[in-house]
């Protein structure tokens, strides 16, 4: 059983992190009592083991200089076992953080792995940067099974860490339920004054919502890292502190601080201890970094004497996250003013037997856009930069991207209806533009007289599978994948521009009606994406200038959270797991990947998706369509998106009792009236089991195994509780009608008549 908290310790100010109010934490008297008992016991043990007297005066002075409430407590010297632990600091090698000797990069992320950058500007623009530069050590990077360490060069271009980063540390045999930390279903506990886990925005003083989980993917429970996950996208460019206190192990025993952290926290004088000079130098340098953080926490009401670990990190700046793609976009749109997109039709199909119902013509071909990648821009190509090696620069060559467009009978004059609305469509995971030619999508598009056009998500398309596989086995290759993803988003933007530019698609006969006129409206284009199309579509929409309305089906953000919660990861884990056999290394790899993945998915752009647009960018409206119990895209991540943007949800979101979480949709508001304006989140329920907590997919949960594990594949698909609901929302007639109204009017209708939205299990 987890520890019960007094009800009055839970912060009722759910928006405290957003409004800028500072949470003042009360001292926990019981915890303080335990802390003093521990000090006394440790002192006795130290006397028995090493026969040493207490060295309290120096510690009291140092603690007092930090404003530590426990400054009058006499601190014992380190025990024999603690001294032995400190000997591992030398073994870790230069550049490793001594706070956790189980892995060089732990805890992660950390400003221990940044340096001061006096330039004060971003590496990708003249915009203000964080003043830091990531400096991950070569020798501390994870190695694959072949002994190849990850090359940190591209990571070290960043001025901070991901706003969606997993926050990693190690506690031996940790018992999180006993410790009473917040879970995905009890986010409010993370905002309590006595929360065992703290995530503090030191820039604003705000306590940030989060949950804490262990790595359930680790085979050995003793090797499981503790993972803190922010419940919002952390503000760009801000400085954060992470702290834990009163964490218990599985048997209910208090987990002590590491020797290094206790030495720093308590200001111990190690000059007379049996510690090497190299270790003392390392700890002194780390203390210089950490003491201001401890002082800041103390000033904000945290009893630092109760902490078992604390550290800080900086989130990358806006320009660092999005500056590359925005520079590519602006240069491309400027180029297109004088040199329009060149479109070449390579095929047409008008045989009704080969087309979805309601579709009268399929047109395939290519279009050109500036190339910002080396060589021909294929998989594995790296980005090209200007002389400063900071801003992407076009090579002067064109990239030829493929497209597929589906024209309705109505727009071609074969059926009453008139001009269609042009929609750019984003395909799913490692798929292709041909997804737009599917029967369900075509039929639904035709019902609303919408002309869907698609191009590949370069970097995350079928053509990239081979290189993606290599990158999972050697993460040093991943930067090229992130580079090509940005070229892929640019292709979506250029396709949209080509659809409305009279010099491009509109002048082609294949897009004319029977009377010779353009068969679709060219004043605006829209976006619709599903799955990966909703994930990368969030990034594309945030930087889009030619569409302002987007429907994102089964979307999410932050692949470092998504991957292990997805059944799609089952295949790719067979590559990464043997390549990086150490469970802690794998979690670090996810954190490292996210630092670059942010450049090409919604996680790096979400803070500017709707009402806080980038320069030269309009505001956008979005509808999130979520499948309850989704096996492929974890709904918790789109809830984080909505929480970040304060997007309201349809109420009732689900039938009573369907969501087992005690605080579902915490800190989100319901839509107050229809038709609504702005943006919205809708859950669609087709009967799937509720998703499990933690970094596993639904088919690994105890509930799914008990109800569905013994069934055959066909039997599972036929049983809504067992089937994957991932594709159900897009096929729901209510969503199709809602999307049509949204594109036509910009308003959001209630497709469910005041009831929870349900979809047929397909």
Question: What do these coordinates show?
Answer:
The protein has 762 residues and is an alpha/beta fold. It has three domains: 7-318, no CATH class; 322-626, Rossmann fold, CATH 3.40.50; 627-762, no CATH class. It contains 20 helices and 18 strands. It has helices at 16-19, 29-50, 57-65, 80-92, 176-179, 259-265, 277-299, 318-338, 439-447, 465-473, 478-500, 532-543, 559-562, 569-579, 583-597, 635-645, 702-708, 713-718, 728-731, 733-745, and strands spanning 114-116, 132-134, 167-169, 197-201, 206-207, 210-214, 226-230, 239-245, 307-314, 343-349, 359-370, 398-408, 420-426, 450-454, 520-530, 549-553, 621-627, 680-684. The strands form four sheets. A nine-stranded mixed sheet has the order 10-11-12-14-13-15-16-17-18, with helices on both faces. Helix 6 packs across helix 7 (277-299), helix 8 crosses helix 11 (478-500) and helix 11 (478-500) crosses helix 12 (532-543). The radius of gyration is 27 Å and the shape is globular. The chain starts with 15 loop residues before the first helix and ends in a 17-residue tail after the last helix. Mean pLDDT is 90; it is low at 1-13, 19-75 and 121-126. Residues 115-129 have a biased composition (Low complexity). The chain crosses the membrane at residues 35-52. Residues 115-161 are annotated as: Disordered. Residues 148-157 have a biased composition (Basic and acidic residues). Keywords: Membrane, Transmembrane, Transmembrane helix.
